[in-house]
Amino acid sequence: MTSRDAIRPGTVAVLGATGGLGRQVSAVFSRAGHEVLGVARRAPHTAGRPFVPLDVASADPAEITGLLASRHVDVVVNVAGGWVVTEEAMHHAHVRLVDRLLAGVAALPTRPRVVHVGSIHEYGFVPHGSGIDESVTPDPSTPYARTKLAGSQAVLDAARAGDVDGVVLRAVNVCGPHPSEASFLGAVLQRLRGAVPGEALELVIADAARDYIDVRDVASAVLRAADAASTGAVFNIGRGEATTMRELVTTLVAVSGFPPETLKETGGSVESKGGGWTKADIRHAQRVLGWHPVIGLRDSLRDMWEAAD
């Protein structure tokens, strides 16, 4: 294992810097002594770090090359995309953006490390009870998972061809401060924030169990991957535990201070962007990156509640 930046922390460009994960990635690199350049379509919630408003998916690769070169960027972290709705929007955010980024990076005389955060859902449906390690062949069946895989695969192909120095982290669903309102937990959080004491909160809850990890633990994995991983590598990032969606919601209700009877589960269909079971096997990340999650699920959900505006 070698360190790419043992002497002087360099500049890190974070694509998707205004999102929940982007905020935490920016913060963890800042604490490590790096200059952080935020890149996103919209201005950040708070000032304090250099920021460039740019839709990377629509930008000319030459513009991306010029931006990275002018800011002397050593690491590019892609956490852009997220919970867009239509398949066209997913392709724009998860595939076109990555293609434009890779073309821009490949034209640089000195290429930065690219850390691309993909999704555990890229593996598709797996048998209930199984742990998902990196040897599992991706076989996604939803538009979200297919487009996420296309973006991740583009990074891996470019890295293995020698065009970029890139790695992929396939992260499980995230919780913790500032979730996307379009995510399941983000939507439940907003419902709880608007709940009237004494009234029931009616929810349709999927009969599923998924691995959830705090967003700050994912950010710490990104930091490790930027410095230590060999190019073309894949790492699954999670807590290594599957929690039922029912338990997840009841825990969030509990840490919010509402009584258990606040939650009223109703029947109905639930649309999912991935399978009904996810549990990441994280031994590869532990072994190669020296990384492990440190924030428990209850603490993560409590912090999510307390950080809500």
Provide mean pLDDT, rounded: 92
How many strands, which pairing sense, and closed or not: the largest β-sheet?
7 strands, parallel
- Please state the CA-atom Rg, rounded to the nearest Å: 19 Å
Specify the number of helices. 9
Number of strands: 13
- How much of the sequence lies in strands comes to 15-25%
Report the order of strands and helices.
EHEEHEHEHEEHEEEHEEHEHH
Pick out the low-confidence regions.
1-8
- Choose one word for the global shape: globular
Quick summary of this structure?
The chain has 309 residues and is an alpha/beta fold. It contains 9 helices and 13 strands. It starts with 10 loop residues before the first strand and ends with a helix.
